[in-house]
Amino acid sequence: MGLDGNQDVFVTLLNLAEEHVTLPNVTSLAGDARETDFEDEHYDIVFSNSVIEHVGAYSDQTRMANEVRRVGKRYFIQTPNKYFPLEPHFLFPFFQFMPVSVRIYLLRHFNLGWFPKTPDPAQAREAVEGIRLLSKKEFLRLFPNAQLYEEKVFALTKSFVAYEGWELNES
Q: What CATH number was assigned to the domain covering residues 32-82+131-171?
């Protein structure tokens, strides 16, 4: 059975802007993952896929991780691996290791991955600096009690998943 009509499952979406939803057991809220008004352990599960790298500096990522651990009885948080050779947002090899000025130049002159060519220097800088990929060590520091799953592509770790509150079968 899907979410539609399932009286036992309720989903809350938290995004920067409220989203239109049609299912009666799905609620959409506008908010900030770094600070919410939810009570401790308000949710059975907190799920986040490729969000934590978009919330700002490492201090902001720490705030989001603290909030996830506070409001969720369990969590499942995914993020791309900083050291995977192909940067997943701009789809450009080793983009994340280039100087900011080079990344801005490239984005101002080319369509890169999910980003269209952005001629305005301020907008290009905002796009480039708006993503902070995490290393395995940094990610584990954010979720010190979590189990870690590493998603592989051709034996290279593409992304990490931190999960706590249950055991996943990794076979």
A: 3.40.50.150
